[in-house]
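Researcher: I'd like a candidate sequence for this fold, 334 residues long. If you have to choose between options at a position, lean toward the conservative one.
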């Protein structure tokens, strides 16, 4: 699913001679001798047909699932995301950075000039290796910190390790989460409920508490919330309430940390094509028609949210704190 919808300079000039100059964005042309990344002018892309639509193939993986085994493979921006130095020299820690939104943020951050540490579960090493390679290929430092966030002492060690290896911490993305679909509250064991709360509520609390003392004015905390915070599904009783809690902590913490110059914001995705959905996050029925109930009639791809994570981390977004940025194909809030 690479982004092939670009005009090369030669095609664009051909277009001008054919009387199509109005279609071409002239300011994007480079003068001879400049790098090829500026040698293309993006064309308008129709968001409706840009990515795969349902019906999707039946598939299921044991939790937490691997992006590399999904059909079709999600697009995290591996071939398409282009940076422009917006985060040069920043130091970022992303939980759940091996796949999904976390991976899209990791690739984008590295290509924007940041050094990036990613956390993930040991079972996700295969996905994580690909991300580490992509960060290195962008010319940035990559730090892998596998481990289970349901353990307070691990959260503290993870932050300490990131600070040590990166030489500080400017961007914390609390993104990892557990989502398991259950038809009824009667099917949710106390162990299930506890695992969801530990992953989605306790881990960001422990991680943020360990990170804040290292953060300087200008640093940011970004949480991944969900449309579930506003419009919970019947079969996501435990997960949905953790996302309401996430949205709430963003707003509380933003007020609290404003005096330190630390901004706190959140991202609220709609249905996005990630391993979370194929490893127990959605029923098979929902998965086959995933995203079909949005106005765009398709799920989002992780890369479509990458620039939001960049914007929330960048210096030029300095007046945004306590905000939730949505991306849900026209469905749901905010
Ligand atoms: P994903 O499966 O790619 O990412 C979730 C990650 O959480 C996993 O990669 C895993 O590394 C991590 N994780 C889970 N439990 C962990 C634990 N105990 N210890 C360490 N890491 C753990 O799926 P995703 O959809 O990209 O999820 C990222 C975020 O997006 C989550 O917060 C999720 O709630 C949110 N979200 C997803 C959707 C969607 O439709 N995919 C919609 C709204 C919100
Ligand atoms: Mg994963």
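Model: Candidate sequence:
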């Amino acid at each position: 699913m690479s982004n092939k919808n670009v005009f090369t300079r030669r095609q664009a000039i051909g277009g001008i001679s054919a009387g199509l100059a109005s279609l071409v964005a002239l300011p994007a042309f480079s003068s001879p001798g400049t790098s090829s990344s500026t040698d293309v002018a993006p064309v308008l892309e129709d968001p409706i047909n840009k990515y795969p639509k349902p019906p999707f193939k039946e598939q299921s993986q044991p939790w937490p699932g691997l992006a590399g085994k999904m059909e079709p493979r999600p697009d995290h921006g591996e071939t398409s995301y282009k940076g422009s130095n917006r985060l040069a020299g920043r130091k970022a820690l992303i939980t759940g950075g091996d796949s999904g939104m976390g991976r899209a943020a990791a690739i984008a951050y590295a290509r924007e000039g940041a050094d990036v540490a990613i956390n993930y579960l040991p079972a996700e090493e295969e996905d994580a290796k690909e991300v580490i390679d992509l960060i290195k290929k962008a010319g940035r430092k990559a730090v892998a910190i596998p481990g289970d966030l349901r353990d307070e002492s691990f959260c503290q060690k993870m932050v300490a390790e990131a600070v040590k290896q990166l030489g500080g911490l400017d961007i914390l993305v609390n993104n990892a989460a557990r989502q398991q679909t259950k038809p009824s509250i009667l099917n949710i064991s106390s162990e299930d409920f506890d695992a969801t709360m530990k992953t989605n509520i306790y881990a960001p609390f422990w991680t943020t508490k360990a990170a804040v003392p290292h953060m300087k004015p200008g640093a940011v905390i970004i949480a991944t919330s969900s449309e579930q915070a506003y419009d919970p599904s019947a079969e996501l009783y435990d997960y949905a309430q953790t996302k309401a809690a996430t949205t709430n902590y963003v707003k509380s913490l933003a007020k609290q940390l404003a005096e330190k110059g630390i901004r706190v914001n959140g991202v609220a995705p709609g249905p996005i094509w990630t391993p979370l959905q194929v490893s127990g996050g959605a029923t098979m029925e929902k998965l086959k028609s995933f995203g079909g109930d949005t106005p765009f009639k398709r799920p989002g791809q992780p890369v479509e949210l990458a620039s939001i994570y960049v914007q929330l981390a960048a210096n030029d977004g300095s007046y945004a704190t306590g905000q939730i940025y949505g991306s849900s194909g026209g469905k749901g809030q905010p």
